[in-house]
Amino acid sequence: MELRQLKYFTVVAEELHFGRAALRLQMTQPPLSQQILQLESELGVKLFERSKRHVELTNAGKIYLQEVLLVLTKLEEAKASALRAQNGMVGRLVVGFVGSATFDILPIIVRGFQEQFPNVDLILHEMPTPMQIEAFHNKEIDIGFVRPPIFDPLLSLLSVYQESCIAVVPKLHPFAQRASISLEDLSKEQFILVEREIWPSWYDDVISKCHDAGFSPIIRQGVKEIQTVIGLVASGLGISIVPRSTSNFHVRDVTYVNIEQEAPRVEMSLAWRTNENSNLVKQFLDTATKFIDCGKHSKG
């Protein structure tokens, strides 16, 4: 039994006339009749009652037509699903992200991607950049929101934006009343910082800028997430320097204050495996690029 025989059968069943059915199928009548006879022979069932002037489905033919139409519909749906998968419209995409990406860029890109590709199963995993690099090597994630620099030949990077850092202090701290402060002003303060192993480039830049300002920062507590930094600052344990986009994370008992002159800067990038050939990855990068190209996330 061949798929074309099923299609021939449905056309004859619709027309109930071999001549008209042959015209629709762009073939002559004798081969069409022969194909229907072969189908009936394989099934061991008579599908049509035939006379010189009349063609009619048998009861078996009517039942068989219902089942064949279901099969043909499923085949068309399967074909459409395969095409959508090939074009990156269905499937599963695993995205890693640093926690600070949720303050700004990640929700916007994810929302835009899901609106365009609602049938893609998007899985999100929060993890610091070093863990994401390991996850890429283990093929556990497909895309990553990371903090460069990253020197790994396996990965390609797309810069999303750069931004300056600001200070975050307890709401009752004297600096909370000021529009801006200098790094020198922080020389006697106790710092809450994300640990170096979690975000080495940012940690090193903060330490370097403090040294340039003439002091070594007093680090009271190292933590693993920016959100934890803000929570501990709110509790009065110290102050910190954080990316400007962190100010979108509203906590009642902290105040964000601009840093004068050469404040530390950070960058957000998208990472993916250089040899990646997934259309889903390409579609996600295309969605992200639209926001980048529109300049919606250029930072001061």
UniProtKB/TrEMBL annotation:
One of its GO terms (molecular function) is DNA binding. One of its GO terms (cellular component) is protein-DNA complex. Pfam families: HTH_1 (PF00126), LysR_substrate (PF03466). InterPro entries: LysR_HTH_N, LysR_subst-bd, WH-like_DNA-bd_sf, WH_DNA-bd_sf. Keywords: DNA-binding, Transcription, Transcription regulation. CDD domains: PBP2_LTTR_aromatics_like (cd08414). The keyword Methyltransferase does not apply. The keyword Cytoplasm does not apply. Belongs to the LysR transcriptional regulatory family. This is LysR family transcriptional regulator.
